[in-house]
User: Fold this.
Amino acid sequence: MANDTLGEVRQNTGLLSYRKPPLHMIRRLWSTTLDLLYPPRCGVCNRIDTHLCPRCAALLAEHQPIIYQNTSEFLSAVCATAIHQGAVRDAVLALKQDSHESLVAALGERLLFAFKQLSWPVTCIVPVPLHAGRIRERGYNQSALLASYLGALTGLPVMLRALSRVRDTGHQVGLSGNQRRMNVQSAFMGDPSLISNHEVLLIDDVFTTGATLQASAEALLKAGAAQAFGLTVTAAAL
Ligand SMILES: [Zn+2]
Assistant:
């Protein structure tokens, strides 16, 4: 069949006008379908039809005094916006299950509020990475979402590839501080071409024993970073 004729057939059958919808449209349609089948629930109070209800959003916007400490082997300073309890804890846990923009924004605003008070001389933002296997499992890295939010509002570059998790450390729940330190030792690697001489702001969702943040900072310093600071949404204790 000549090309012209084939073109006519396609036009007549509507094949020519068919365009594959872009991926983001498919994702949005899928997400809307899921919302209809399984209505979202507030990540904090479980109220239906919202990922974060106005009442809980207001609770998260209440800023308590920041928790701050500046004695750590590899980190010049560490800060968390709240103790890991109550609405903030529930929202942090919800962000591990649901990457909805309302949760990212509510927790990202807390980081921004704390960061503005700290006056740390940072030149870039680096999220604590997840192992590739965990990313496949969850679909996203919650710390990278928070880092990107903070980067967009501060204008600081967010280096998503500056630090990688070269070993899967598994779930750390239930491990003691010492076991966590052993578990994350040498789990991270920094990229000298990206990080050399930078003053890095490390972002993570939770500070439990500090083992993950310490190991991340150690890898960054080994890769040539000048300094590393740590900022998390919550902390078990600092
Ligand atoms: Zn709620």
Observations:
- The CA atoms of residues 125 and 158 lie 5 Å apart.
- Residues 42, 44-45, 47, 53, 55-56 surround zinc ion (CB under 6 Å).
- The chain has a mean pLDDT of 86.
